[in-house]
Amino acid sequence: MFRSLPAIAAAIVACFVTTVAAQPTSSPDQAARAVTPYVYMMDSAGDKVLLQTSFWRNDPKYDERAFHRFLDVMSDLEKRGFQKSDKAVIDTWDKPQPFAKCYIYLEDLQAGKRTKSSVTSGSRIWCSDNGASEKEINGSDTPKHIEQVMKEFDTYLGRAKANVKK
């Protein structure tokens, strides 16, 4: 893990509000209230990952679970050889490069489901040159969500690595 984790946790906790509501909501001001932290990571081969999440700031318990999911994915990426890196910035997604570029967006509304009474979030995963469009996994709060995210990430990254132009 990286050293600034306690500082990040303190900043996120400071953003929580005390009102409790369904998480996330479809209210018009939801995007303005959301906090979307991210981290760029890179492995020894130069492959890069953008990991991002959202804290909706209207349900502290949900945001706490979202924070733990973010840390769980970061930890799983570290087990796969990725480390936080200031050199891992991705300035273009379209330009072919000699490394894979991936993103994992957690707590994403696009990957969620809408019903008449609620909205749920999900995750989106994609890697350059993997031969498929992005993968959406709904149900962020389900028990196997992180496992599904990492399984799809491994598949997409494996295909991307096989297709990068060295």
Name some characteristics of this structure.
single chain; 166 residues; alpha+beta; 6-stranded mixed sheet; 4 helices; 6 strands; globular
Give a description of the structure:
The chain has 166 residues and is α+β, with helices and mostly antiparallel strands. The protein has helices at residues 5-15, 30-33, 60-79, 145-163; strands spanning 38-42, 48-52, 83-84, 101-108, 122-127, 135-138. It has a 6-stranded mixed sheet with strand order 3-1-2-4-5-6, covered by helices on one side. It starts with a helix and ends with a helix. Residues 6-22 have low confidence and may be disordered.
Summarize the main sheet.
6 strands, mixed
What structural class do you assign from the helix and strand content? alpha+beta
Number of domains: 1
The span between the termini is 30 Å
- Secondary-structure element order, as H and E? HHEEHEEEEH
Low-confidence runs: 6-22
* Sequence of strands across the biggest β-sheet: 3-1-2-4-5-6
The oligomeric status of these chains comes to single chain
Determine Rg (CA atoms, Å): 16 Å
How do the helices and strands line up, and which of them pair or pack?
Blueprint: H1 5-15, H2 30-33, E1 38-42, E2 48-52, H3 60-79, E3 83-84, E4 101-108, E5 122-127, E6 135-138, H4 145-163
Parallel strand pairs: 2-4
Antiparallel strand pairs: 1-2, 1-3, 4-5, 5-6
